[in-house]
Every structure is written in C-alpha cells, then in structure tokens.
Write a structure and sequence with these properties.
The chain has 274 residues and is α/β, with parallel strands linked by helices. Helix content is 33%, strand content 24%. Helix 2 packs across helix 3. It binds adenosine-5'-triphosphate (ATP). It holds the Pfam family ABC_tran.
C-alpha cells in the first residue's frame, strides 16, 4: 500500500504539497493504531491518533509535552487504551515470548553483571526458554559488534557502550516490534554514531519506533517520520517528503535544511520548536 504523506496545520488543513507520496506503511502492518485517544484525568494527551507501522525505522518527533512518551507507552500496552484500538501482529508468536522489545531512555542494567549475562537475563525476562539464552546472547552481541565486550562488567562500560548493550538486551528475543526511547540522549557525537549504527543494523525486518529529539539521527536512520504536536499527528512521511515540504528554501546543506524545515513545520503546526 502506498499512502499520502500528510501534514496538518493546527487548524486541521493539509499544508504539504499535493503530490507527495510516502512508501510507508507496507501491506502487512506490524502495529496498527486506530483513533487512539488518551487522557490523564481531564488533560487529553493524545487525540484521535491513527497510523500503521511496518518493517523499518519510524522516528517519532515532536516538541516537549507533545505526547511521544504517552504514545510509546500505549503502543507497548503499558497504558490502557481509552478510546480507539492498538493491534499488534504477533508474527506467529505462541510461545509466551514478548512480541516487543523496549529500550528506555535510562536503561537499568545490573552493574555487577557481565555484558553477556545482562543480555541473557533480559531474554529470560522477555520469556525465552533458559536453554536458548546463551546462544541468543552471543548472537545479538555479535550482530551489534559487541562480542569484545561480552565478558566486561556493565559498570566498567562507557555511556555509549552501555546504550548499545541496552539495545542488545531489548531485542535478544528477536521481537517484531522494537521501541527505542531517546537511545542517543546525553551521548557525545562519536557515541551517538555507534548507537545509530547499531539501530541501523538491527532494524531491517522489524518495526522500530524511535523517539528522539536528535534530527541528525532521524536523517540517517529513519525510513519514515511521525511528528506529534499537541497530541496529534501533524506530519507523516519520509525524510525526502520533509525536504520536499521545505521546498524552495532548500540550500543544499541537508543537515541545516532538515533542521530548518523541521522547525518551520513545528511552527506551522502550532507548536514551539526546541
Ligand atoms: N502522569 C501524568 N499525569 C498528568 N499529565 C501527564 C502525565 N504524563 C504526561 N502528562 C502530560 O501529557 C502530555 C504529554 O506528555 P508526554 O510525556 O507524553 O510528552 P513527550 O512528548 O514525551 O514530552 P518530552 O519530549 O518532554 O518527553 C504533556 O502535556 C504532559 O504534561
């Protein structure tokens, strides 16, 4: 299925060019969110949110307070759906193993444990059978280029190494849905690059929802961008779609253009760019 790239201004009118096409969502979504609404008592945090997630990286962007964390929690089933539905395709999972992996912004890994054991333990928490943990831990550490760290204690790792271990722990059970909440926050540029490479390496066949404030990460790893503003989806399209929305102001500096385009988009949508 091919869908229109959409951007809605604060008064609900489409603001994007008429011919834009995004390649997402694919035919068989791994997650389908339909007419989702969520309120904290009388404060409505999410209004009528609908989108499909298929394989690839979807970046979730938006100003502070726009509803990103609330949406992640709803998708993971950590908050109840108040109105609307969230359907997760379990992709054949009947063995009690969780169909999602979650890497929180500040993952808590046991400092005394080795990297291998911490990742294997996460697999056990996700419901994997004990007999599979060792091989799965070796496999995911190898995939993420972390084999050399396998015997190191977590407490001896740098922030970037720890974050990559957290990604390994979040997906040792090979979930069809991976949710990453600001995985590069607080890291230096070199560490961010390694984390970005890790994200790019593991996301081919699964739906990855990446909440981030770092436009650099979005530009490099995202297949699709969802922008939340005031609890509503304001933009849904590809990175290229966003460049096309920028239009004639395109200067040729992709990084600067992307930031400028995003800021302009947020202002048009009625939010405060950060
Ligand atoms: N437990 C809560 N009780 C009441 N209101 C809440 C609660 N958690 C969040 N909110 C409100 O819901 C709205 C969405 O918050 P949310 O944390 O989802 O935004 P966010 O986009 O993740 O923000 P940030 O980028 O700052 O992390 C905000 O107005 C926030 O103040």
């Amino acid at each position: 299925m091919v869908s229109d790239c959409t951007a809605n201004s604060s008064d609900g009118k489409a603001i994007r060019s008429g011919q834009l096409k995004a390649t997402m969502p694919p035919e068989a979504p791994i997650v389908r969110v339909a007419s989702l609404r969520y309120a904290y008592r009388r404060h409505v945090a999410l209004h009528d949110i609908s989108f499909d997630l298929g394989p690839g990286v979807t970046a979730l962007l938006g100003p502070n307070g726009s509803g990103k964390t609330t949406l992640l929690k709803c998708v993971l089933g950590l908050l109840p759906t108040e109105a609307g539905t969230i359907t997760r395709d379990e992709r054949g999972r009947t063995d009690g193993v969780e169909s999602f992996g979650y890497v929180p912004q500040s993952p808590e890994l046991p400092g005394f444990s080795t990297v291998h054991d911490a990742v294997a333990y996460a697999g056990w928490l996700y419901g994997m059978s004990p007999g599979k943990l060792d091989a799965a831990a070796h496999g995911i550490l190898e995939l993420l280029g972390l084999t050399d760290l396998a015997r190191r204690r977590i407490r001896t790792l740098s922030g970037g190494q720890r974050q990559r271990v957290a990604i390994a722990a979040g997906m040792i059970h090979d979930p069809p849905l991976l949710v990453l909440d600001e995985p590069s926050a607080g890291l230096d540029p070199g560490q961010r690059l390694r984390v970005r490479e890790a994200v790019a390496r593991v996301t081919q066949a699964r739906a990855t929802l990446l909440s981030t404030h770092l436009l650099e990460d979005v530009r490099h790893v995202a297949d699709r961008i969802l922008v939340l503003v005031n609890g509503k989806v304001g933009f849904d399209g590809t990175v290229d779609d966003l460049y096309r929305v920028i239009g004639p102001s395109h200067t040729g500096d992709l990084g600067a253009d992307f930031e400028a385009g995003y800021d302009a988009l947020i202002r048009t949508l009625g939010g405060d760019s950060e």
